[in-house]
């Protein structure tokens, strides 16, 4: 008596001569390779970004578990993560990941433009608000002015002669402008 080791949920497929068509494991492995690489990218994300992705709690827990593994355990865990990602909506997760970690945030030219706009805002350049309103229709001018006012106050409290890293309000202003740029310049 022979046992059927095929999975019960899958129907057998037959070719024109009546032979069973078996799954090509090598092909399936090649198709899963990009998902596995993406799982490795997800492990590099900070844990606070996981809730921003459209994934369930099981996958979040598996990603957090994967951060502490190394060696062969990590490679086995990557296979597990690949299966979980494949069971969920992989294209939607990939799109959300690309939106969160947009290449715009790492483009030095665009970052420099935002930094110049912030410096112009801090230097009381009157024309910068009109340019920003022309570029970003949803610009909250009151919020930007409040951040600029607080950044100036913080800068005045610090020693103005030494070049300092951006203060808290300058970072908030930069993050706000980056968010607008992501929305309007995609």
TrEMBL record:
It holds the Pfam family DarP. GO terms for biological process: ribosome biogenesis. GO terms for molecular function: rRNA binding. One of its GO terms (cellular component) is cytosol. InterPro entries: DarP, DarP_sf. The keyword Cytoplasm applies. It comes from the Bacteria. Gene3D superfamilies: PSPTO4464-like domains. Keywords: Cytoplasm, Ribosome biogenesis, RNA-binding, rRNA-binding. Residues 1-29 are annotated as: Disordered. The keyword Cell membrane does not apply. Residues 8-20 have a biased composition (Basic and acidic residues). This is Uncharacterized protein. It comes from Cardiobacterium valvarum F0432.
């Amino acid at each position: 008596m022979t046992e059927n080791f095929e999975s019960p949920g899958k129907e057998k497929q037959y070719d024109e001569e009546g032979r069973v068509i078996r799954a090509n494991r090598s092909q399936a492995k090649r198709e899963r390779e990009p998902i596995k690489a993406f799982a490795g990218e997800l492990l590099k994300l900070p844990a606070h970004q996981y809730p921003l992705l459209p994934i369930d709690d099981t996958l979040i827990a598996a990603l957090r578990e994967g951060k502490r593994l190394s060696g062969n355990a990590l490679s086995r865990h990557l296979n597990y993560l690949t299966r979980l990602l494949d069971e969920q909506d992989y294209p939607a997760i990939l799109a959300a990941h690309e939106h969160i970690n947009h290449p715009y945030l790492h483009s030095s030219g665009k970052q420099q433009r935002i930094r110049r706009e912030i410096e112009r805002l801090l230097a009381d350049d009157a024309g910068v608000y009109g340019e920003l309103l022309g570029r970003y229709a949803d610009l909250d001018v009151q919020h930007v002015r409040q951040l600029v006012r607080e950044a100036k106050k913080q800068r005045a409290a610090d020693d103005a002669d030494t070049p300092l890293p951006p203060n808290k309000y300058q970072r908030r202003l930069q993050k706000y402008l980056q968010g607008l740029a992501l929305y309007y310049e995609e």
